[in-house]
Amino acid sequence: MFGKLSLAALPHEPIQAGGAASVVLAAFTVIAALTYFKKWKWFWTEWMTTTDHKKIGIMYIVAALIMLLRGFGDAMMLRAQMALASGANHGFLSPDHFNQVFTAHGVIMIFFMAMPFMFGLFNLVVPLQIGARDVAFPFLNSLSFWLFVMGAMLANISLVLGEFAATGWLAYPPLSEINYSPGVGVDYYIWAIQIAGVGSLISGINFFVTIIKMRCPGMTLMRMPIFSWTALCSNILVMMVFPVLTVTLAMLFLDRYLDFHFFTSNLGGSAMMYINLIWVWGHPEVYILILPAFGILSEIASVFAQKKLFGYKSMVWATIIITLLSGLVWAHHFFTMGAGGNVNAVFGIATMIIAIPTGVKVFNWLFTLFRGRLIFKTPLLWLVGFILTFTIGGMTGVMLSVPPADFQYHNSMFLIAHFHNTIIGGVVFGYFAGFIYWFPKIMGFKLEERLGKIAYGHWIVGFLLAFMPLYFLGLDGMTRRISHYDSATGWQPLLVVSLLGAMMIGGGVVFQLLQIAYSFWKRKEFADTNGDPWNGRTLEWSIPSPPPVYNFARIPTVEAIDDFWEQKQNPKHPAHEKIVYTDIHMPKNSGLGFLIAAAGFFMCFGFVWHITWLIVSSLVVMLAFIFYRSFDQDTEYYISAKEVEKTEIQMRKGEH
Amino acid sequence: MKKIKFKNLLTYLISLFVLSSCKLAVFDPKGTIADQQKDLIFTSFWLMLIVVIPVIVLTLFFSYRYRETNKNAKYDPNWADNKYLELTWWSIPIVVIGVLAVIAWKTSHTLDPYRPLESKVKPLEIQVVALDWKWLFIYPEYNVASVNYLEIPQNVPINFKITAQAPMNSFWIPRLAGQIYAMEGMQTLLHLEANAPGSFEGLSANFSGRGFNEMKFLIKAGTNEEFKLWINSLKNSPERLTKERYDELAKPSEDDKVQNFSFVEENLFMNIMMKYMPPMSCH
Question: N or C: which end of chain B has fewer CB within 10 A?
Answer without folding.
Answer: C
